[in-house]
Structure of FUSC family protein:
Amino acid sequence: MAPPATDTGESTLARIWWLIRAPLPGRGGHSLRMAAACSMVVLIGEIWQIPDVAVPALCTMAVWQKDRTTNMLAGVAINILIIAILALLFVLIHLTLDHPFGQVVAIMLLSFTFFFLGSASKLKPVAYLLGLIVVFALVVADQVPIGEIATRALLYADLFILVPGAVMIVCGPLICPSPATLMMREIAARLRLCATLLEQPDGYQLDYARATLRAGAGGMLKLLKMARLEKILHKDQLAHLEQSAYSSVAALALAHTAFRDGEVQQASQEFSQTLRDMAEMFSHNGYPQDIPLLSAPDNAPALAQLAIVLHGFTEPAAPTPQDAPPAEQKSGFFTPDAFSNPEHVRFAVKGTGAVLISYFIFTILNWPGIHTCIITCFIVALPTVGEMTTKLRLRISGALVGGAIGIASIIFVMPHLYNIAAFLLLIFVVSLFASWVKNGDERIAYAGFQIGLAFFLSDLKGYGPTTDMTTARDRIIGILLGNFITYAVFATFWPSSAYTPIAKRCRTLLDVLKKQIATTNPAEHTRLAATVQEDLSSTERALELAEAEPPHMRAHMPLLPTYAMITRQAAIVAEDGLLPSRRKAVQQHIQDMEQALT
C-alpha cells in the first residue's frame, strides 16, 4: 500500500502564500462578520469613551463564533460571568488599594486560578480572557484618580466584557447564518472535494482534502447540536443531516482512496456530476434523497463503495443492539483528572510565573507602556513545549505584521482621518485581514489573532485616531517581551512534552479501527470512520509537536519513529477499512501495529 501523495514539492513561502489565500468554505463570510463585530465594538467604545478599547475588541475577535446560536449562548454566558468578576474586583481593589504587596499577591492568586481553570475545566479559552481582564483591571487601577478608583475600574472591567457580549447577542442573530445552514455548507464542501479528487487534483488540493478529511465530523456535529437547540428543524431532518455528516467523511476517504489507487482514471463523469449536484442541493439548504446507485468498474473497489455510500448518503440505519454506541456520560465542569494530574497545577504555576515576571519588569523599569506583556502571557500560554515552539514563529511574525500595519497607519493614514466613519473603515479593513488569517488553516491561524492583537493595542489608545508613535512602539515591545517571557518560563520549568500522550492516542486510534472493521451496521460504520479520522488527526498533531521540540527533549523520545510509522500505516488502514474486500488484510495490519506498539 502506497501512502497518500500530498507533498507538493513547492517552497515554504509558496505554501504559506497558498495557505493565506486559500478560499476555504465559509472563510470569507465568517471573516467579514468577525471584522464587522470588532468594528461595532470599537464604535461603541468610542461613543462611551471606554479606555483601552483594544481589550474588548480583542475579546470579540477571540470569542466570536460562526453561527447565530453559539454567538447568543456565548454572549449570554460571558455577561453572566461578569457579575461574579465584578464582585471579585470590588473586593480586590479595596483590599489592594495603596498596598503594592497585596496587589502582587492578588495578581498571583488570580493568575493561578484562571490558568488552572483554563487547563482543568470546560471554561477554556474563556478562562484566559477573564483572567486577562481581571488582572489587567488591577494593574491599571492605579492610573486613575484615587477617589474614584474602585468605581472606574469596576465600570471599565464591566464594559470590557459587556460590550462584546451585547454585540454577540444582538448582532449575532442578525448577521450570522443558522448552524444548520453552516453544517450543510460543510457537507457541500466535502462533496465538491470528492469530485475534485476524481478529476486529477493538484498537490495543494490534495493537502486541503487531507486536512478536511482529518477534521472528521466533529465540527459538523457541534453545529448539529446547536441546530437541535433552535428547535426549527424536525427531528427527522436532523437525523438525515447527522447521517450526511458521517457519510461526507466516508465519501471523502473513499475518493481519496480511489485517487491513491489510480482508480480515478476509470471514474465516469457521472460520479463527479452526481457529487456536484448533491453539493448544490446542500448549498441551498436542502438534502438529496433517492440517489441512484452509480455503476463502477469491477476492478475499482473504492469507486464501488463510494457509489454505495452516495446511494444511502442521507438515510440513517437503525442501530442494532451490538452496534449501538454506549450512552455518553455527562462530564462535569472539571476534567476527570483535574485534581489528580499535576500537569494542571504546573501549567498554572508557569503561567503565573510569566505574568509576575512581566509585571515586575514593567514596574521596576517604570515603563507602563509595555503592560501589554501581561496581556500577552494570558493569550500565548500553551500546555506543551512543542506547541510553544511551533506557535512562537506565528506569534512573532503576527505581532511584527500587526505592529507594522499599526505604525504605518499612524504615519500615513491617521493624519488624514477627520471623522469616525473613516476611522472605523480602517479598523474594519485591518480586522478583516486579521480575521481572514485567523480563520484559515491551523498552520497559520494563530498568526491572525496576533496581527489583531498588535494592531488593536497599537492604534486604539485614546478616543478616535491617534498619532502617538510612542504608545505603538511600547505596546509592540510589550507583546514581544510577553512572548519571549512566556516561552522561556514554559520551556525551562517543568517542560511538558507533546511526546507523553502519543502512546495513549495510538492505542485509542487502533481500538476505534478495530471497532470500525468489526461492525456490520452501515450507519455505525460511517460514524466510526469519521471518529477514526479525528483520532488520527490528534495523533498526527501530537507527533508534529513532539518533533518540533528542542533536541535535548527529542533525545528522550525513543519510540517516536515507531509512533510515526504506526500513524502513517493507520492513515492508509483507515481508508482501506471502508472496503469490504480489504478487511481481512486490514485486520492483519492492525495486529501488526498493535505488536509494534507493545
